[in-house]
Amino acid sequence: MSEHVHTQKCSAMLGDLSEYIDGSLQAEICEQIEEHMKTCDNCRVVVDTLRKTVELYEHCSDNVEIPGEVKERLFAKLELNDYLSTAKTSK
Ligand SMILES: [Zn+2]
What we know:
Helix content: over 70%
Strand content: under 5%
Distance between the termini: 17 Å
Structural class: mainly alpha
Bound molecules: zinc ion
């Protein structure tokens, strides 16, 4: 029995997440993210939540692009920073 271990792949993936949500990420990297999400529930939940939040936001604000600042706040709200630092910390 072992807990899900955040791998370097997780933190790398989540680092690209805002671009992934933007759709500005290279197709190759998108594929890697999607591939990773198939095997990693935690990352899938994070991406799903973030994507829904972003979609909702864009929907409500007339398809205006989300400023980086707002995205940072979304990330913070989702405690993604915590998630990322957890991913980096290995014991
Ligand atoms: Zn992961």
